[in-house]
Amino acid sequence: MNFLIEKNKWSFTEKSGVGIRNAYTKLYINGDIQDVLTDAFVLCKSEKSCTLSKVFNKYGLKAETAFKSENDILLINMEIENLSSEDIILGKCILLFSEDDTEIRLSGKPEGYKVICQSGWTLNNRILKLSSEKALISKTMGFIHDPESKKNINISFCTFDRANTEVVYGYEHEAGVKAQCI
């Protein structure tokens, strides 16, 4: 298992090559999107555990993002603290943000991947083939499955304040699988 933080990106791969490469973590503060990893103080206790601390002086806000890998599982936890006496408007926290250089790889061909799209309600969940034609949205849990290799990636949220959480999937022939974990 390999976990790496480099510049403003993170990567998580297992020995077989399955994983996520060059992902970003972003946070909306007062309507502005901010990169959480750029210029963050990084404290790595081991190759499997890193905490990034960043103070956004412009907003009077501190964000600590902890990455912990164990048994082929990556846990990302973010704690946000208002250091000022002013109100701060928080928007979406995007734990997994895809850009052109981001890659989500299982083993087979991405155009054959299937995804679970949860409704988030009492409606039926759907299993759909990943498509380049439109984005697919899943509430709370995202699950990407490669029928060819039988490999999976589960992207899920655990929230206790009933926040609206989404995993937005897409596929681009040149760039591969894209997912936003919002």
Q: How would you portray this structure in words?
A:
By secondary structure, the protein is mostly beta strands. It is 0% helix and 59% strand. It contains no helices and 17 strands. Strands 1, 2, 3, 4, 9 and 10 form a 6-stranded antiparallel sheet that branches. Strands 5-6-7-8 form a 4-stranded antiparallel sheet, with no helix packed on it. A hairpin with a 2-residue loop joins strand 1 and strand 2 (9-13). The protein is globular. The model has no long low-confidence stretch (mean pLDDT 79).
Topology at a glance:
Layout: E1 2-6, E2 9-13, E3 19-29, E4 32-35, E5 41-46, E6 49-56, E7 61-70, E8 73-82, E9 90-97, E10 103-105, E11 114-117, E12 126-129, E13 136-139, E14 141-146, E15 151-156, E16 166-172, E17 176-181
Antiparallel strand pairs: 1-2, 2-3, 3-4, 3-9, 3-10, 5-6, 6-7, 7-8, 11-12, 11-14, 13-16, 14-15, 16-17
Question: Which keywords apply here?
Answer:
182 residues; four-stranded antiparallel β-sheet; mainly beta; six-stranded antiparallel β-sheet; 17 strands; globular
